[in-house]
Amino acid sequence: MAGWAIWITGLPSSGKSTIARALAEMLAANGIRCQILESDELRRVITPNPTYSQEERDLFYGIMAYIGKLLVENGVNVIFDATANKRAYRDRARREIGRFMEVYVKCPLGVCMKRDAKGIYRMGIEGSAANVPGLQADYEEPEDPDVIVESDKMDPEACARAILDAMVGRFGLAVEGRVNRDAVEP
């Protein structure tokens, strides 16, 4: 049976990775396995010396969506943990993966900049990084995400629970304490 995919998108340092890990832990606690495809980890393999140019991003996110599609087709549940600053990247994955949800981690740029442990925004401001989404590169917010969580107002576990609740309805997951109302007979 095919798996499903969740794409968690948002500005750098919005909390995507923390939320993805919290969601994966909640799923595992319910016996549901998944694979997180984290963009920084994949970049180490696909583009070990990234330039973050538009051409490289187009290639990278195309490969990332393709890997996710293959995993889902082979029964692996996938959580994409990636900014994917252009809607086209996420829309491609939505078209190619039948059971798909897009999650937007909404967070003000100022909050993301304060949280920036990797120094991405600092490098963008100093000029040593030229294509930081939210600064020099546009971040195209999802037009119609399946779930929106506000990571400046909700802790990571609350964000993950909101995503999980939406997944129960969308994918028919059996999760402790949550009921797929669509699957219940009247």
Structure description:
The protein has a five-stranded parallel beta sheet with strand order 2-3-1-4-5, sandwiched between helices. Helix 1 packs across helix 7 and helix 3 runs parallel beside helix 4. It starts with a strand and ends in a 15-residue tail after the last helix. It has a single domain, classed as Rossmann fold, CATH 3.40.50.300. The longest helix has 20 residues. By secondary structure, it is an alpha/beta fold. The chain is globular. It is built from seven helices and five strands, in the order βαβααβαβααβα.
Under CATH, the homologous superfamily reads P-loop containing nucleotide triphosphate hydrolases
Distance from N terminus to C terminus (CA atoms, Å) equals 27 Å
Low-confidence stretches: 179-186
| Class from secondary-structure proportions | alpha/beta
The CATH top-level class label: Alpha Beta
Going across the major beta sheet, what is the strand order? 2-3-1-4-5
- Reported by name, the CATH topology is Rossmann fold
Integer-rounded radius of gyration: 16 Å
Mean pLDDT: 92
Q: SSE string, helix = H, strand = E?
A: EHEHHEHEHHEH
CATH architecture: 3-Layer(aba) Sandwich
Number of helices: 7
What coarse outline follows from CA principal-axis ratios? globular
Helix content: 40-55%
Largest sheet: 5 strands, parallel
The share of residues in extended strands comes to 5-15%
Characteristic terms for this protein:
186 residues; alpha/beta; Rossmann fold; five-stranded parallel sheet; 7 helices; 44% helix; globular; disordered C terminus
